[in-house]
Amino acid sequence: MTDPLSALLEGTAAHARGRFDQRNGRLGSSTTVHAVHLQRWLGEMLIPAPGCHVGTGTWDFTRFVPTNDPVTCGRCLRSPQVRQAAADHVSPQLELDLVSPEDSR
Question: Which of 2, 3, 66, 97 places its Cα 20 to 30 Å from the Cα of 43?
Fold first, then answer.
């Protein structure tokens, strides 16, 4: 049986992982977008974190917020593994057919 505190913390970590599913992240109000990797938090619990391992300056991992924006962090983009993971996170933008039937004449 798991103790209540461990269950609460694991639930918090699982919620954070779910928020970043197939997404990139940014730290607080920063405009830099990071690739996401999972890092060990407490014990064996994993939480989303910047792929470049940049320091966050806090224990508050909720400052790392999910985004669908493409990765702009130079450190993240220099790593082939992180670059590939970032590409896998961003779904392609829907292309719209903006040509009217009259324009195709």
Answer: 66
How far is residue 87's CA from residue 71's CA, in Å, rounded to a whole number?
A: 8
Q: CA 31 to CA 12: how far, in whole Å?
A: 25
Query: Is residue 91's pLDDT more than 60?
Result: no
Give tens-digit pLDDT for 31-71.
999 999 899 988 889 999 999 988 877 777 888 999 999 99
- Domain holding 19, by residue range, is 4-89
Tell me how many domains the chain contains. 1
Residue 77, domain member (yes or no): yes
SS3 for 13? helix
Number of neighbours of residue 67 by Cβ within 10 angstroms: 16
